[in-house]
Amino acid sequence: MKDSGSARQKKNIRILLVEDHPLVRESLKRIIQQQPDLDVCGETDNGSQAMELVAETKPHLVILDLTLKDSHGLELIKNLSDSYPKVLSLVFSMHEEFLHAERAIRAGARGYVAKEEPPAKILHAIRKVLGGEIYWSEKAASWVASQIASRPRPSSNFSVDLLTDRELQVFELMGGGLNTRQIAAMLHIDASTVETYRARIKDKLNLKSSSELLQYAIRFQMLPKNKDS
Asked: Taking a C-beta distance cutoff of 8 angstroms, is the pair 205, 215 a contact?
């Protein structure tokens, strides 16, 4: 009969989960805990507590969503990269991979996996990142390569890839129904700064009015995920 203490000791790879949907978080935790060497050392639904848990539990890997209770996942990735450069991060999200994967990698993440992927693919992504590699889908990697090869990008009235990370965050939060004050609180910036970002977004997307900007933001949030082109 095996010693249960010895079995527990094999779980030497610590993983922190940062996900704002409890059911999704529990499902991901169950997938990870079934692995003999992987252990969920902590979980939270917000970026602030995530940084505290990183200091407390010293995880090898942080798996995070881009939509959190109190912040945007890209900000958490950047904070992790600055404060804990040895801690790896993997994005686990329903957001459009074509738009967010490259940004997440630039921010410091080591991979991007979609929530709808089967458990085997999720575990494959975790293993790749833990092994020191970058993980994203073949489709996303091909798309990024084509974007690099075809630059400068063609002009478009809806080229959201022209937006900076912060502008994209504001744009998405607008589309999610948040007003200026709520966006400011979520991103920990002044309301006047949010208005500045709104004006820049409107100019970059070649939109004529604030109402048109809001309509485009809402339409963008309603776009289907995982486009084939």
From this structure: no
* Segments of the chain assigned to CATH 1.10.10.10: 160-222
> For residue 68, which of 169, 144, 137, 136 has the smallest C-alpha distance?
169
What phi and psi values does residue 48 have, to the nearest 5 degrees?
-65, -50
pTM tops 0.70, yes or no: no
Strands 13-18 and 111-114: unpaired
Report strand pairing: 38-44 vs 61-64.
unpaired
In tens, the pLDDT along 43-68 reads 999 989 999 999 999 999 999 998 88
Q: Cα(73)–Cα(55) distance, rounded to whole angstroms?
A: 18
Secondary structure percentages of the chain, helix, strand, coil, to 5? 55, 15, 30
pLDDT of residue 143: 61
pLDDT at 130: 94
User: Looking at the predicted structure, is the pLDDT value of residue 10 above 90?
Assistant: no
CATH superfamily of 4-144: Response regulator (3.40.50.2300)
Residue 178's CB: how many other CB atoms inside 10 A? 18
**Residue 132: its pLDDT value, please?**
86
The rounded mean pLDDT for the chain is 83
Q: Map residue 40 onto helix, strand or coil.
A: strand
Question: Which residue intervals of the chain bear CATH 3.40.50.2300?
Answer: 4-144
**Which of 3.30.460.80, 1.10.10.10, 1.10.3720.10, 3.40.309.10 is the CATH number of 160-222?**
1.10.10.10
Burial of 23 (0-12, 13-18, 19+ CB in 10 A): exposed
